[in-house]
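Input (structure):
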């Protein structure tokens, strides 16, 4: 029997607080504006008020104080146009910070550069100054169009926000700067204007992949004049998504060369490890890095908050901790009552809706005017809904917002006083990116990380050094993944026939993949070039965000009204029949899921529960790339095939999370070829660890759950990216085996990172299990609320003994590559599997 864990995350009375008036402002090019007038309580005062409720103080496990930091100025480079400098001064910015000036110097010398500094450090101005200067130079060119620039953002909201900032900053420059957004929400009648007249086009990698590059003859004048490509929030391009974007950028560079341009790439990132290396991997170019942050920083008080245990008991009698969702809703309510402008980052769309809904209900009991000042913000909303929420946040109409990470990379708004993080966001880079949304005009700010009931969150709130004393992660992506590379070679061949001279641009695996595409008759060689052979568009072969096909539309059954969409990859787990779907605070029940027509029919309802899908998984080894002995045990890395099927869903009581029942489902299985790390143990080692045959399944299963929970601390991933399977006797190894795999076709680099940090990763896993105060296992250490086997069997003590024995023989450097990458041949490089198919979180 295999045990699997798949990837994919009583009310305290309100303190009697009075509502205080607040004032609001919106930042433009960067955050070097004077502090706003009005009431802005000190972050320590705000935290003290939050801790004043019954039992609240004991929930704060650690408070970190980051003192304010002075800024350091530098002069603008001489080649920046004086009109641009005057416009920047008119915006209230007299001189640049030193890192802004350095980025501008690189840009003016024609050198690609990445600026990786803290949130609110003015990265936008670092690239806008040379870009606007170039656009002004181009506006005076005799041929009329002049220089152009392309801006890429990972979210539509960020592109729209940047357009507002550019328009405000460039207003004194007249018609020399013509910014325009070109995305899926842009009306068709406006798109032609953008192509013909805009010289600063703001878009996203998806539109570049699906619309701009395939239609490059219509963009010929824009591409011919392209001087700069700005890639904002480039740390978001990691894993399979980042690998796709890397190939999209190579296609862009190829077409630019065809039209005679060689643009400079300017990238902006949150603080990251080795940003120049990551940016070079993303663009395929040498990239200079600017990492010394010379901007001032206000005081930041960062609290770690652990919800209390309740009297309830979960699966197998384990104690249940109060949910992070309920705790976040309480804190958001209290902050809104105080008049403290707050964003609460929540890991899931459903969670964001729940936090906003609960906060609205509780605010109604305090002041009937307050519920309308709290809302949810997430992906899947219709464009007009997103724009209305962004406007309300900008104007200050909203006091509180429960948002998914769509806002982490979305709207740049000044005046926020606090940030709540409902669960660890998966990486330290995201943690600081989210925390940095508050205090963005040099005022003090409060950030609170509210732990979910899982191994990693519990570990972090009791090991603050893992957050505050460790560097942020490096960005992991693999452009050579054949499942990523294949559709982009097809798209490139359709855009312009591929020649042997082009192949070096696409990486060392390009020739191998082209041979496979020829064998599948997707590409055909004619003379010296390869041509696309099909009638359909090659750009439609893949969704670069890994959606795995057409999104599923969520339609109200009685009215036919479209409520929103959900990625096809997530449909099996989120809009199956009987699932509860939340939209704008209203609950709906899914009555029918039609996968063939990509439609989920729902009806409005108000059930007292949420739903959680459960899955089963089997795994087979295709090839072992690397194997390292740990005594008699073996640590391995290679290619695997995973078969996953959603088999049932649980109904959980709102707020408490108590399981009310389970309902079977009949959904088709799905398969995934990917990369995995796995380890085996021998019978002698089990005897040494005193793990009996009866306890073996529970020991392996518990170690698997906990190791998946801890991996995000060592690889730039979260639980949506990875999955796992544990087997007392695996047919391929003939030994007890635990697998952890990438939840993306061809792999995403996370399992490989786990292999190279295995001793530290599994050591932290053992420590997290052993340190938990429960007796037999709970969600804070070894249980997973979405385990396909209902968290049975699990054996906490046997897992500790097993990991202790395994680690006793671990080498100090388990890297040991053998030089081969072990990639298996492409089975279907165009019918790409849903990368989040086995998505599940604990």
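Output (sequence):
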């Amino acid at each position: 029997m295999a045990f699997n864990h798949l990837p994919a995350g009583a009310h305290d009375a309100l303190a009697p607080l009075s509502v205080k008036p607040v004032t609001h402002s919106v930042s433009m090019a960067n955050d070097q504006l004077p502090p706003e007038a009005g009431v802005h309580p000190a972050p320590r005062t705000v935290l003290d008020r939050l801790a004043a409720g019954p039992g609240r103080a004991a929930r704060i496990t650690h408070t970190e104080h980051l003192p304010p930091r002075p800024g350091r100025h530098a002069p603008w480079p001489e080649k920046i146009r004086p009109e641009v400098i005057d416009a920047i001064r008119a915006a209230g910015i007299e001189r640049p910070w030193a890192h802004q000036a350095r980025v501008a110097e690189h840009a003016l010398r024609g050198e690609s550069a990445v600026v990786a500094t803290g949130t609110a450090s003015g990265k936008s101005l670092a690239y806008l100054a040379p870009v606007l200067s170039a656009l002004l130079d181009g506006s005076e060119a005799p041929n009329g169009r002049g220089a152009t620039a392309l801006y890429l953002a990972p979210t539509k909201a960020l592109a729209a926000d940047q357009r507002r900032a550019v328009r405000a900053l460039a207003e004194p420059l007249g018609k020399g700067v013509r910014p325009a957004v070109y995305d899926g929400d842009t009306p068709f009648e406006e798109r032609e204007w953008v192509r013909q007249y805009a010289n600063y086009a703001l878009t996203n990698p998806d539109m570049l992949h699906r619309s701009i590059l395939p239609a490059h003859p219509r963009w010929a004048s824009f591409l011919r004049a392209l001087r700069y490509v700005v890639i904002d929030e480039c740390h978001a391009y990691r894993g399979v998504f980042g690998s796709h974007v890397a190939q999209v950028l190579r296609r862009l560079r190829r077409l630019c060369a065809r039209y005679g341009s060689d643009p400079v790439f300017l990238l902006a990132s949150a603080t990251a490890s080795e940003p120049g290396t990551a940016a070079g991997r993303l663009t395929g170019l040498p990239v200079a890095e600017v990492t010394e942050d010379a901007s001032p920083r206000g005081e930041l008080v960062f609290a770690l908050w652990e919800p209390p245990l309740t009297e309830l008991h979960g699966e197998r009698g384990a104690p249940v901790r109060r949910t992070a969702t309920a705790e976040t809703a309480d804190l958001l309510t209290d902050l809104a009552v105080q008049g403290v402008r707050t964003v609460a980052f929540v890991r899931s769309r459903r969670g964001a809706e729940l936090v906003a809904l609960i906060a609205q209900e509780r605010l109604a009991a305090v002041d009937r005017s307050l519920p309308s000042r709290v809302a949810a913000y997430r992906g899947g909303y219709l464009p007009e809904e997103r724009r209305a929420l962004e406007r309300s946040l900008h104007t200050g109409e909203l006091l509180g917002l429960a948002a998914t990470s769509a806002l982490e990379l979305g709207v740049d708004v000044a005046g926020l006083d606090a940030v709540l993080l409902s669960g660890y966001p998966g990486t330290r880079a995201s943690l600081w990116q989210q925390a940095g949304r508050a205090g963005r005009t040099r005022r003090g700010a409060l950030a609170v990380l509210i732990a979910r009931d899982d191994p990693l969150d519990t570990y972090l709130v009791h090991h603050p050094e893992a957050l505050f004393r460790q560097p942020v992660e490096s960005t992991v992506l693999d452009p050579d993944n054949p499942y990523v590379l294949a559709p982009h070679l097809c798209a490139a061949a359709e855009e312009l026939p591929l020649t042997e001279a082009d192949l070096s641009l696409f990486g060392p695996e390009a020739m191998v993949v082209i041979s496979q595409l020829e064998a599948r008759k997707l590409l055909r060689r004619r003379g010296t070039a390869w041509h696309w052979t099909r009638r359909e568009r090659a750009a439609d072969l893949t969704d670069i965000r890994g959606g795995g096909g057409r999104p599923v539309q969520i339609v109200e059954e009685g009215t036919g009204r479209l409520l929103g969409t959900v990625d096809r990859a997530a449909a099996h787990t989120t809009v199956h029949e009987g699932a509860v779907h939340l939209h704008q605070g209203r609950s709906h029940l899914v009555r029918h899921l039609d996968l063939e027509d990509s439609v989920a029919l729902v009806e409005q309802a108000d059930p007292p529960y949420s739903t959680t899908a459960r899955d089963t998984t089997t795994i087979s080894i295709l090839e072992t790339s690397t194997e390292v002995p740990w005594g008699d045990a073996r640590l391995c890395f290679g290619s695997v095939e995973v078969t996953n099927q959603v088999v049932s869903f649980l109904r959980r009581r709102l707020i408490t999370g108590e399981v009310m029942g389970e309902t079977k489902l009949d959904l088709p299985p799905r398969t995934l070829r990917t990369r995995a790390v796995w380890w085996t143990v021998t019978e002698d080692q089990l005897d040494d660890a005193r793990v009996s045959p009866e306890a073996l399944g529970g020991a392996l299963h518990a170690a698997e759950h906990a190791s998946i929970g801890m991996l995000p601390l060592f690889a730039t991933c979260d639980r949506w990216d990875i999955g796992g399977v544990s087997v007392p006797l695996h047919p391929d190894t003939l030994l007890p085996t635990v697998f952890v795999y990438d939840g993306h076709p061809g792999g995403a680099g996370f399992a490989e990172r786990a292999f190279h940090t295995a001793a530290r990763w599994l050591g932290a896993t053992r420590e997290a299990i052993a340190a938990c105060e429960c007796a037999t296992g709970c969600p804070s250490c070894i249980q997973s609320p979405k385990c396909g086997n209902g968290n049975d069997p699990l054996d906490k003590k046997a897992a500790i003994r097993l990991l202790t024995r395994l680690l006793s023989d671990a080498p100090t450097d388990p890297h040991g590559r053998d030089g081969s990458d072990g990639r298996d041949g492409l089975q279907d490089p165009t019918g790409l599997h849903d990368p989040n198919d086995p998505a599940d979180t604990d």
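Notes: The CA atoms of residues 387 and 804 lie 53 Å apart. The chain has a mean pLDDT of 85.
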